[in-house]
C-alpha cells in the first residue's frame, strides 16, 4: 500500500511523504541514509552492480537502527525527483518542512508506523517487489537481514542460495567499506607500481653498475644510493601514472552521471570494459620502457630511449638480419609476457574492486574546506549539549560544498549558517590556492627536488638509478649530461688553440679559426716510414675496400707467430690466407682501430672524423643533404678523378643512398644496380637469387658477384685510360670505394657452390666452445669473403690494373661471435686489420708492418700524402695523420669509440676504456690481454694516471665537438650559428 501511495503520488506530494517519514525516524538515520545514498549513487556511476550497492545500504539501515528489510527498501528503491538529490540536502529539507507540506497525511503516517512495527514478518521479497528472489538475477540474491529490536540488536542471516566462505570473503574484499579509507585505491596503485619497479631494479642493479663502472664499484654505498634515488624517481613516475588514472576515473564518473540513469546495465558494462582497457594500456605504457631498458642493460649493455625506438622503426626492414641471439629473443618474449600478465592483474583489480576507484578521493582533500571546518566546529559544540532525553545528535557534512550548517542550539537545522560574504570569499580563495598548491607539489615541486638530488649524485649512481620511462617523459632531465671539458686546460702551457692538439704536426695547414678544425691542408713534412713512388703526370687509381666484420684476430700474419693471447688455440692456421698474402706484398697495419657499426667507419674512412657519439644514430643518418663535408671524394674530385661507390649491399640503411650521392660520389652502385648488372652481364637468372643457388641474401648480393662486377669495372676503366693516354688526352683516374657484405651477421648465407667447396678445418677454433655453431658459421663466411678478395686481387694483377692502382684494404669493424653481446669484447669489435698495396711502387717498404696505434681516420691524410694534393691544397675537418710519416712509438694517441659500449684511447699497445660521463676507467694491454681481464691503471704512478685522465678529457672534448658540429650542420664553418 505504501509503495502504491508513493508511486502514484505527484512529485510535490511524494516529497511531502518523505518529509513525514523523516520526521518520524531517529535523528541518527540522517547520517546512515546519507552514506547509503552516496554509496548507491557512486556505485551506479562507477559501473558497480546496483544490486550490490543496495545490499550495502540495507545493511546500513537494518543493521544499525532495527529497520526491517522492507522498510529500508522503501527508502532506497524510490530514487525519483528529490530522492536522487544529495542526501544531506534532503535531510535538511526534511527537518525544514516545506511550507507547501503544512498538512500532514495522518493516514500515510499511520501506515508507515504499522509497517515499521510489523516488518519483522515481512521478510519476503514479494512483499515489496511483487516477485520472488528466484526470479532475480544471481547478482541480486543476497543474505536476508533481520533485526529483533533497535536497542539490543541481533542480526541473523538466511541464505536461499548457498555461498561458500571463500566467495563471501572475496565479496567482502570487493565491497570493502571505503567510507573511512577512501584513499585505499591510491594506496593500492602506489604500492603495486612501486613494488614492480623495485623488484625489476634489484634484478638489474649489478649489470647497471658494471655497465657504467667496474665490478669494484658494486659496493653497499653505491647500491644503497642507486636504489634510494631510483625509488624517488619511481615515485615521481608513479605519481604521473596515478594522476592519469584519476583523470580517467573522474571522466568516467561524469559520463556515468549523465547516462547511467537511462542506460542502466549497458553503461555499467561499458564502464567496466573501459576501466580494464585504460588501466591495462596505461600500466603497459608505464612499464614497457622501464622493462625494455633493463632487458637491454642485461643483454646488450644499452639503454632504452625513444631515439632507439625510432631507429628500430626506421630500420625495421633490417631487423630480420639483425644479430639477435635466441637467448635474447627468449628473454624479450619472457619480459613481454610477464608485463602482460602483471598488467592484466592490475587492470582486473581496478575493474573488480570498488575501492580501487581513484575518483573517490584525491590528495587535494588533505586540505579541509572552510565549510567542513565550520561544520565540524559547530557539530562538536552541539554534540555535547544534552536534552531531557539524552544526547542531541547533529548531522555532519559528508561532502565538500554543503552550503548549510547548524547555527544555534534551539534551531540547528532551520537557520542556515551564514558568514560574512567577503570573509567567506577569502577563505574559499585560500582553500582553492592550497588545493592548487597540492597539485603543483606533486607534479612539479617533488620532481624538481628529485632532479636536484640526481644532480648531486655521482653519474654512476644517477645512471644506475635511471627510470627510463620518467627520463623520456621529462626530456632526459634525469640523465646526467656529458661532461663539458674546460678548453683552457687543453691548451694549458702552450700558446696554441686547443684544436691544434688534434692536428698532427706533420700536416701543413691553414686554420680558419681558433675554435674549429676547419682548415686547408697544404702538404706534409717529416721523416718517412715508407714511400710510394708516384708520377704526377700519371696519377694512379685509388681503391679503398671495406671488408664487412673483418677483425684483427682473423689474420695470422698480423697476430704473429707468438700469438701471446692464444687467439689461434695453439694452431698455425689462418682464417684469411689471401689477405695475409697480399698484406705481405704491401704495408700492413696491425694496430689500427675502428668504430662500430659500418656507418661510423664511413665517417672515419672518408672524412677522417671521430664518429658521431650516439647509440641510436650516426652522423650520416637521414642522408644529411644540407650538411657540407669535405673528405676523400672531394679531394679526388678536385684532383680530376671520377668517384665511384660500389657495394653488393642495400644502402637504404641510415640513408646511405642519399648521403653518398650528395657528398662527393658521381656514381653509386648498390644491390639493385648489381642485381641488374649480374642478370645482364653474368647470366644470373632471377630464380637464382633466392633459390637453391643462393646468389643473394637478405643484405643483398654475395661478394663473389660484387667482386666480379667491380673487377669488370676496373678492367674497363683501365682500358679507357690507356686509350686516353694513347690519344694524348688527359688521363681520367678513378677513385673507388667498395664495401663487401657477405660476412655480415648473422653469418647464415653463402652461395651453394661454396658449400660444396673444400675448406680448411677450423674445428680447433670452435669445438667445445659456447656458441660453437655461430663461430663455425663466422669462420666459414670469413673464409668465403677472403677467397673472393684473393680472386679479385689476382685478377687485377693479371689484368695489369694493380700496377696503376693504390689499394687500401681495411675491416669496417670487427665482431665477436664467441659471445652473445659482441660489444663486451671491445678489442675484437674495434681492432681491425688493414694493408696498403701499391704494386711496383713501395721499393724496400714491401712487407713493412706498422705497429704503432692508428685509426681509420688516418686513411685520408695517408692517401693525400701518397697521391699528392691539389695545387691549392684541400679542405678538411679531420683529425687523422699521414701514416707515411714516422713518429716515435707510443707517443701518439688515437680515439676509438663504441657508443654502444665505451669510449677508448689507444697509445702503443695500451688501451684506456672510459665512460663519456662517469669516472670509470680501465687500462689494458692489447697484446698480452686481448680479452681485457687485467686492469693496469691501479699499478701506475699518480703522475701516469693523471696523464691518462688528461687523454680522457681530450677524448671527451673531441667527441662532443663532432656531435655539436654534425647537429648544427657547421662542420665546414668557423663558428656554428647555434
Automatic annotation (TrEMBL):
Transmembrane spans: 183-209, 229-248, 269-299, 331-349, 433-453
Keywords tagged on the record: Membrane, Transmembrane, Transmembrane helix
Pfam families to which the protein is assigned, alphabetical: Sulfatase
Protein name: Unnamed protein product
UniProt lineage: Eukaryota, Sar, Stramenopiles, Oomycota, Peronosporomycetes
Residue ranges constituting the Sulfatase N-terminal domain according to the UniProt record: 540-868
Gene3D superfamilies for this protein: Alkaline Phosphatase, subunit A (3.40.720.10)
